[in-house]
Design a protein that fits this description.
single chain; 356 residues; alpha/beta; Rossmann fold; 2 domains; six-stranded parallel sheet; 13 helices; 12 strands; 44% helix; 17% strand; globular
């Protein structure tokens, strides 16, 4: 196994691992550990180039720093990616090698589930390192974080509706959910139960059609979904979907979804504001999963009731950010970053005071 450091300004540590025997090619980025060890999920995708994977892991790690800070989890931000086709390359040898890679950071980075990585994969990783969260309930861990991410998004949508209409009433609202996987599919069920009119799309059209027929939801094509009129657009698939090509086509009043890094560039948040579209910053509204996992770190171990209570704070944090943005006339994503950076700065000051 060969582990090399990639020097990248603004990040505490970025490392690459190549393991010829298992076929592992992976990256870990640790952005900031001011508030605690860097926790962030592991994802596996067939990136065309390592540069694409590096771009992804850096953005995701930074997003996790802000997410954990804004949610007050007592954790920092990091992320890991495995380069390769999950349908073809998954093996015990590969995940054991990944476990050794994670372990090489001595607890500075703690991993969890993310795209194309499940509990069974993480259980193999756990054979080589203890720095794994989100394992099965039977093992004393917190289990799959996806339902908690969906629940947090629902709490966030309540704040969005209050900002739009003065009341959190889902009844009759058209909510368009892009990506109906473990998070998006559960979110669709939650808002439907509140009386919302659910519209779904997915790159897996057969899955979307099946769910649409099962639940009576409207189904649209993924290629043209941004043209569909709705009250709330909820991106719940891969990130970077809000850009010059999609923003002018949007026919929604607000954006509130679980995908990470929804803005391709920060200027796109200003473009949404210019169009009068309310944006719920992704790292605030999708924090339910990381909050749930963070409860494992508390003395006494995981407690679901503590998790559910803390996930409710997503509503409060979004209300606070909307108020900052409204009063100061700035885009909501800038207000959210300001909130997170204030908490990181406070943590840094407390550390310095403790050393004095």
């Amino acid at each position: 196994m060969e582990i090399t450091t990639i020097h990248y300004d603004g990040y505490e540590k970025v490392v690459r691992c190549r393991d010829v025997k298992s076929g592992l090619h992976a990256l870990i980025a640790v952005h900031d550990t001011t508030l605690g060890p860097a926790l962030g999920g592991m994802r596996m995708l067939p990136y065309a180039r390592e540069d694409d994977a590096l771009f992804d892991v850096l953005r995701l790690a930074k997003g996790m720093t802000y997410k954990s800070a804004a949610a007050d989890t007592g954790l920092g931000g990091g992320k890991s990616v495995i380069i390769g086709d999950p349908k073809a390359l998954k093996s015990e040898a590969l995940f054991r090698a990944m476990g050794r890679f994670v372990d090489s950071l001595d607890g500075r980075y703690i991993t969890a589930e993310d795209m194309n990585i499940g509990i069974k994969d993480l259980e193999i990783v756990r054979k080589e390192t203890r720095w794994v969260t989100g394992l099965s309930r039977e093992s004393g861990s917190s289990g799959n974080p996806s339902p908690y991410t969906a629940l947090g998004c629902q709490h966030g949508m309540r704040a969005v509706l209050e900002e739009l209409d003065g009341v959190a009433d889902f009844r009759g609202k058209r909510i368009l959910i892009q990506g109906v996987g473990a998070v998006g599919g559960r979110l669709a069920e939650l808002v439907a139960a509140e009386g919302a009119r659910v519209i779904i799309c997915d790159i897996d059209e057969a899955k979307a059609d099946r769910l649409g027929k099962q639940h009576g939801w409207e189904v649209v094509t993924d290629a043209a979904h941004v043209d569909v009129p709705c009250d709330i657009y909820a991106p719940c698939a891969r990130g970077e979907g809000l850009h010059d090509g999609t923003i002018p086509r949007l026919k929604c009043r607000a954006i509130a979804g679980a995908a990470n890094n929804q803005l391709l560039e920060q200027r796109h948040g200003r473009d949404l504001k210019a169009r009068g579209i309310l944006y719920a910053p992704d790292f605030l509204i999708n924090a339910g999963g990381i909050i749930n996992v963070s409860i494992e770190m508390l003395p006494g171990g995981y407690d679901e009731q503590k998790s559910l209570k803390k996930i409710e704070s997503i509503h409060t944090n979004l209300r606070k950010v909307f108020e900052i943005a409204r009063v100061e006339g700035i885009p909501t994503h800038e207000a959210a970053v300001r909130l997170a950076e204030q908490r990181i700065a406070a943590g840094r000051a407390a550390k310095l005071a403790g050393k004095a």
